[in-house]
TrEMBL record:
InterPro entries: PP2-like. This is Protein PHLOEM PROTEIN 2-LIKE A9-like. Pfam families: PP2. It comes from Cucurbita maxima. The lineage of its organism: Eukaryota, Viridiplantae, Streptophyta, Embryophyta, Tracheophyta.
Length: 174
């Protein structure tokens, strides 16, 4: 699908579902300024979906979101991103980045503050390090049976780059 405008819009078929886990690949992300090659690029070595990554060149406004439908009422889900930092990554030290999730489009956010500045380049790691658990209230309306997940740093106006996002995940834990 050809996209116009500066922001990358998620493609609906860019996920893999296994038993209790949904893995969302970079084509499934909404990325602010993601269609502007000065700021982001989608790397897809060997045309393999599960090896692709969204690579941040440089931005002052980090906003990457994705979602999944059909979560089970009365269950808890852990969510996060599988990321790495390039050796030339910059701007992350002392910077608070937030992984946030909510149930339904109008739900309340569950935030988790993370730091990327102390992790080693070229090694994949999960953020947040301690699970962000999202409860799906059994009284939730049927139209709110979705989880919306995001990675944000929109407050500092500092330039940052070198982040590689391999995928996001939403996993039922009980």
């Amino acid at each position: 699908m050809m996209q116009t405008g500066p922001h990358k819009v998620a493609e609906e078929d860019a996920f893999y579902k296994e038993k209790d886990k949904v893995i969302i690949y970079p084509r499934g992300f909404n990325i602010t300024w993601g269609n502007d090659h000065r700021y982001w690029r989608i790397v897809n070595p060997n045309e393999s979906e599960n090896l692709s990554l969204a690579e941040l060149k440089q931005v002052s406004w980090l906003e990457v979101t994705c979602s999944t439908d059909n979560v089970e009422l009365g269950k808890n889900y852990k969510v996060g991103f599988n990321v790495s930092l390039r050796p030339d990554a910059f701007g992350w030290k002392g910077l608070d980045v937030y992984v946030m999730a909510k149930v339904g489009k109008s739900g309340n956010f569950f935030p988790k503050k993370v730091s990327l500045g102390d992790d080693h380049p070229n090694q994949n790691f999960i953020i947040p390090k301690t699970p962000l658990v999202i409860p799906i209230d059994p009284s939730t309306a049927k139209e709110n049976r979705s989880i919306h997940l995001g990675l944000y740093e929109v407050w500092s106006s500092k330039w940052k780059g070198g982040l590689q996002i391999h995928n996001a995940f939403i996993e039922k834990i009980d």
